[in-house]
Each structure stands twice: as structure tokens, then as C-alpha cells.
Amino acid sequence: MASGLRRDPLYVDPESPPALDAAERSQLRAKLRALRIPVMIAAVSSNPDDESDGQKDLLVKALHDRLHRDALIVLAEPSDGGIEVVNYGTRVDPTYLRNRPHYLEYPESADPALGRRLDQLLTYLGKAPTSKSDAPQSDPLAYDPPPAVDPVKEQALPGLFTGDFHPGLTLGVFAALLVTGLVAAGCGTIRVIVTARRRRYGAGGGSGAAHGPHAPERPSLGWLRRAARHDLDTLTAALEPMTAPKPTVGAPEPVAALPAEAQRRAWECLDAAALLIDGDSDGRIDADATPAVLACAIVLARAGRTAIDEPAAARHVCHRNPLHGTARKRTEVRPRGGNPGGNLGGTPVGSARSTADDAAGTRGTGGPAGTRRAAGRTRAGSTMWSLPVCEGCRVTPGAVLRLRSQERNGRGAYVPYATLPGPLAALADGAEIDQLTRDVREYFGVH
After folding, report:
1. For residue range 114-133, what is the model confidence (pLDDT) as tens digits?
2. Is the terminal CB of the chain with fewer CB neighbours within 10 Å at N or C?
């Protein structure tokens, strides 16, 4: 700011709200040059986070110290039109400045009209009488204000051995004994916490046996990328024995002993997941992978792992949150729309929990398959749809998986996954994993 005022008596902060147009700036500069007293105008917003700590008097003093010249300094607030005049050493009658008309005081206003007000102020200053004393006059406001709070010093802590610390030593002895007892008691608490975390994030990385693998309701993009990388690596490592020319002596052969159908499903899940998130085939997740694509890859990788660990497991995943994993049961749902999933807003029969918060509106129709297949089952003569759910969602319906939409460069709101374009949405209708892998391959032209 000081550098700008050295070159031009009118400084307008580029980061403040625009308050002066080109014509007003030109007119103000002409008036400033015509004045017989040095006047400088700084149109800048006060900010509590800057070096002046939001204090205008401190800002004016800092400007004067850097400019090394006497002048009338005018601070103009672009946001509300407020104007303050401070005299540093000019021969202007201070009484004339203090007693200026009320319309030049300029309180805060919703319509600042800063250009017109500054023009009127310069007209008034052009008529300012000279002080009767020969000595330069200073405005009463031009005092030496206290310095702004130094954020570094404010956070500084006193030295460890400053002051009288001997009483602290006495207290420390008793505190040590107390801490020893607390530590001993806390060990039991820690064991309980560790045991609970192991149950929650055990071998399957799950959030509890009820809902299968770890599956947050609203996963972040970072969580999805990490989970996709981990689950894909886990499935790849489980399938590696099939690609080895000779099995290692003493090494387990879990894949080779699998039924052909389970092996086929595991490989197809791996291939489909790789097509979704590793389009460059460089072994890394694509930078532009969307949340819906990443979630779909996670579901495929976990389904492939399930085909290896449990060949007889069902070929469906939980329609409420596919990240829950394999569907152990089916539940009857009263649909609200034309799709079996009832827009994920249907109420499971026999459940006291309302799922109105899961209403998804119209499902996404775009994506690899281009169409949505009605995969839910219905009984003859009944309007109820039977959809796959995990054991936990059968007992107590879990929250529907919500992912970020691609609005605002991927920072859109969390919406039910069935409303997003892509193959993942088909799982809300109860589609099988085999159908999901076919949809992905068809989209990428792989047969």
C-alpha cells in the first residue's frame, strides 16, 4: 500500500470490493493534484487478520512511518463508505477538520457511493484554512497507537525453568503416583477399546458382523481411493497362485481348489474393477475416477474376494449399501416408483424404521449399461418386491449409501448412489454381480 501511494496519491486495494470506477478515479486524481496541501487516499477494507489487526489508527501510523512524509491521510472503507481523515504534520487548521459538516462524517451505509463522497471531501479540503501557528499541526487522532498483537508472541510459552518451580516438584511427586495408578487402571480400558476395534475392523475390515465389511454411509473421495487400492490389491494377491507356473512348496493353494464358476467370477470381478479405475493400465487409480466408479470397483473387488473365500455365497450384494458386501437374506419392499428398488424409499415389511430419508427420486439412467434392468423378484399376485440385503440390514435397515455428485468439480452434495449415472446404480434393483461385470465389459467393448 505504501509503495502504491508513493507512485499515486490514490490507492485502491485490488482485493477489496470495487467501489470506484475509472471515471471516478481519474476525477479524484485530478483534484488531488490541484490541492495546495498533500492529501493521500487509501481505499482499503480493514481486516482483523492483517498486520494492523483491523485497527485503522494503527494502519495510518504504519503508512506514515513507511512513507516518511507529512500529509493528510484519508482512509476510505469500500464496503460501507466510511471515511476517516488523519493529519500528519500539514499546516491545516485542526478545528476545520474536526468541525467538518455532518455529511462528510459518512457513517456506515448500504449505498456507500464512495466516489461522490470522496469528491465532496476533496472540495471541502481545498478550502481548508492554514493554521494560525507556524508549526505543522497534527490531528488529535494521529497519536501513537499501541502495536498490533504479534501472533507469534501471543502463542509463545514461557521457558520451562522460569519462575519458582520448586513447588511444582513437590506436586509432581504426588502427580506421578496418581498417574501410575491411572495408567494401571487405563490399561484395562485400552484392552477393551482394542478388542472393540478388532471386532469392528477385523479380518474383513468390517464395521461389525452385522453389516459386513467396513462401509461408511457417506465415504469421502480419499476413503474410496484408498479402499479401492487396498481391495484390488487383496484380490490380485489372492488370484496370483493361479498365474504361477509352479506352486511354491508348502504354499496354500486356495484358488486352484476353487470350483470353475467361482474362479470365473473372481477373475471377471478383477478385470471389471481394473477397467473402471485403471484405464491407462499403469497399475494406478485414474486421477479422474469418480466416487460412483470407485465405489463400483470396491464392490467388484470385494465380490471377487468373496467368490474365493466362500464359493457358495450368494451372487448378490446388499441393495441398500453395496459396500456391505454379500447379501445373506432378502427383504420385501413396497416400491414407490417403477423400479424394484422403489427409489430406495420403500419401507421393508415388518420394519419399524422409516426409510423416508432414503428417497432418491429418479434413478440415474446413464452409465455403462445404458439401461436399468429390473432384477428384483416379486411373488405371484403381490406388489411387494424382494430385494437382497445383508444380515444387518434385514434386521435393521441400514442407511442408503450416498456418494458425492460430480457437480461443482466433484464437490457436489451427497446423493443416493442409485441416482448417479454408472453401473453401480443397477445394484439398487437387486442386480447380480455377474450382471454388473457384464455391464462394465459391454461399456468398454470387452467381450
Report:
1. 888 888 888 988 888 887 66
2. C
